[in-house]
Amino acid sequence: MLNELPPDLAPVTRHLRAMFGSRLLIATVSHFHVFDILQQESLSLTEISNKLQLAERPAMVLFPALCAMDLLRFDEAGNLALTETGRYLATAEKSNIAGYVGLEKDDPGVVDMVERLRNDGLLEAPQGISFVKEGEGFSPMDDPELARNLTLGLAGRARRLSPIVASKLSKREGHLLDVAGGTGFYTYEWLLNNPGSTATILDRPAVLNVAQELLNEFIDSDRPGATGLRDRVTFLAGDMLTDTLPQTDLLLAASLFHDWPTETCQMLANRFSSAIRPGGELWVHDAFLNDALDGPLAVTDYSAQLFWNTKGRCYSRAEYRGWFTKAGLLPTSDTISTQMDYGLIWARKPL
Ligand SMILES: C[S@@+](CC[C@H](N)C(=O)[O-])C[C@H]1O[C@@H](n2cnc3c(N)ncnc32)[C@H](O)[C@@H]1O
């Protein structure tokens, strides 16, 4: 167990991700004119998405963000309506500040965000998409230099969060499968807390080269029990979307689902469920939208960042639990916070 938690660096990650939320706001006011449309009449999420010709993913990024900013709200009928503050972004309102917001409308980040919202992401991605390996196309996760940079970019976050996550995961003897495990830090910390257990880290080969180096550093760190880790960790190079997954007692999906669209998330939940032994557990460490899809702001900003960089977005706990249930798992109602606006949820495989 951790005796004392290190300071939460959420103020840093919130400012980092706010840039993407700002782009959404300016795009909405000055390019999509959402406030003018909703000033006429409140509309359901589907109706406004259809009117703007937005696909499901951009709509599920944009509208929760505008609710979190307290500019839109879901009314009693479940339709999106302007809030008291949001009224002043409609041009029909005499003292509106839509023009003031619009001074930034030609900012390259805003213009790019508008395009991505319209096209549900990049129209073409010859350089591949960060953190994503799907099919035969080029993936940065299979390029030695790009995979190293991206994996090391996540190392600081994983180093800080992994001791907290490991202290909250179940303690048990058995096997942990850390799917898309990246640096492997979540596994290393969990194994220190569970000396009778073993683990497999599944990821792309170029990522696992970096993870192996980080394990060597971890072992050399003089942490009690660290030397025994080498014999307890297996590195498994593979494709989680297509390869048969090894059977396990615990499966960890850390910052994994948020890189993928909804259909892939359901497919992954099904695959993970098949890999978990009866009585085993699926744990998800991620940042979750409110089930009402109206915030929190830190997560809607993060969702905008993920929309920009990956094939995914942030999802609500209700969305995750829906996938788990369809995959034959029993979701628990636990919601456990870690740091930097992340948390844990988990589900059990029936005996
Ligand atoms: C956002 S990172 C998360 C890494 C780690 N779980 C963490 O929280 O630090 C996503 C990981 O998914 C891996 N990944 C992407 N597509 C994959 C695939 N098809 N099969 C296996 N791993 C994949 C990437 O290589 C990357 O390491």
UniProtKB/TrEMBL annotation:
Domain O-methyltransferase C-terminal: 174-328
Keywords: Methyltransferase, S-adenosyl-L-methionine, Transferase
Any one GO molecular function term: O-methyltransferase activity
Active site: 258 (proton acceptor)
SUPFAM superfamilies with a match to the protein in the record: S-adenosyl-L-methionine-dependent methyltransferases (SSF53335), Winged helix' DNA-binding domain (SSF46785)
Alphabetized CDD domains for the sequence: AdoMet_MTases
InterPro entries (alphabetical): COMT-like (IPR016461), COMT_C (IPR001077), SAM-dependent_MTases_sf (IPR029063), WH-like_DNA-bd_sf (IPR036388), WH_DNA-bd_sf (IPR036390)
GO BP term, example: methylation
PANTHER family membership: O-METHYLTRANSFERASE CICE, PUTATIVE (AFU_ORTHOLOGUE AFUA_4G14580)-RELATED
Name recorded for this polypeptide: Methyltransferase
Organism: Spirosoma terrae
